[in-house]
Design brief:
This protein is 37% helix and 16% strand. The chain has helices spanning 26-34, 51-57, 89-103, 115-127, 141-152, 186-193, 214-224, 239-253, 259-271, and strands at 14-18, 41-45, 79-85, 107-111, 133-135, 158-161, 174-179, 203-209, 229-230. The relative contact order is 0.15. The protein contains 9 helices and 9 strands. Its EC number is 3.6.4.13. Residues 78-239 form the Helicase C-terminal domain.
């Protein structure tokens, strides 16, 4: 818009960059900044600030005032974290299918490591007659906007995506995040699971873990001073897990359904732990 002279910049006083300083947007932000008046105030907001991002800020921030939160004060309060041990990659899909009824109690986001994996998992779920939506960076912006609008409105309840969704994209009713693949760095982990438990709500994060992922998981635990419990292999979630999901479910549906739908949804939430059957070794 600036290049097409549809947006005048001479009177802009403040530029706010909220969760946008990843590698994919770095050049675009530099381009925007070059069009702004020299006196423009720049405000950078991010849940995490790794060294490479701090170095980037020196290119367009002069004598900045930094307000930094200590690492051990990064709150995961209200988000119960679990991991599911899977011996083989293909067990992840079987486990996800077993969990599907749980996902649709409220709204869930499933994170994959690549766009190709998102497309593959979406196709596999739909072939198995599960209703899911998906989004990644290769999709046209108009299509992504439509998918997000439907998800925020509750028209779709399970979204499969990449880390494009991890930073700065908000849907308040999400209370379950599944890391189908673990992220490749600590900062992305907190961004991902932070999509649940928004604004004081309860949330649950589940991580599908193969043997070679254990060291990554332990590193996350140590770095953020948090605890990630193993999900019981008999398929029984503990009461904390049930209460986290069901409490959010009540908040999510109470204002939008009639009394019979409400009762059915609550019953479904209280019963879901009885229906899980995890893959067994063959």
């Amino acid at each position: 818009m600036i290049r097409r002279k549809k947006l005048r910049t001479r009177n802009i006083k403040t530029l706010v960059i909220d969760e946008m300083l990843n590698k994919g947007l770095k050049e675009q932000i530099y381009d925007v900044y070059r069009f702004l008046p020299p006196a423009t105030q720049v405000i950078l907001i991010s849940a995490t600030l790794p060294n490479e991002i701090l170095e980037m800020t020196s290119n367009f921030m002069r004598d900045p005032i930094r307000i930094l939160v200590k690492r051990d004060e990064l709150t995961l309060e209200g988000i119960k974290q679990f991991f599911v041990a899977v011996e083989r990659e293909e067990w992840k899909f079987d486990t996800l299918c077993d969990l599907y009824d749980t996902l649709t109690i409220t709204q869930a986001v499933i994170f994959c490591s690549t766009k190709r994996k998102v497309d593959w998992l979406t196709e596999k779920m739909r072939e198995s007659n599960f209703t899911v939506s998906s989004m990644h960076g290769d999709m046209p912006q108009k299509e992504r906007d439509t998918i997000m609008k439907e998800f925020r409105a509750g028209q779709t309840r399970v979204l499969i995506t990449t880390d494009i969704w991890a930073r700065g994209i908000d849907a308040q009713q999400v209370s379950l995040v599944i890391n189908y693949d673990l992220p490749n760095n600590r900062e992305l982990y907190i961004h991902r699971i932070g999509r649940s438990g928004r604004f004081g709500r309860k949330g649950v994060a589940m991580n599908f873990i193969k043997t070679d992922d254990i060291c990554i998981l332990r590193d996350v635990e140590q770095y953020y001073s948090t605890q990630i419990d193993e999900m019981p292999m008999n398929g029984k979630f503990n009461l904390v897990f049930e209460h986290q999901i069901c409490a959010q479910s009540i908040l999510s549906i109470a204002c939008s359904v009639d009394s019979q739908q409400f009762e059915n949804s609550i019953y479904k939430g209280l019963q879901f732990s009885e229906s899980l059957n995890y893959p067994r070794k063959k």
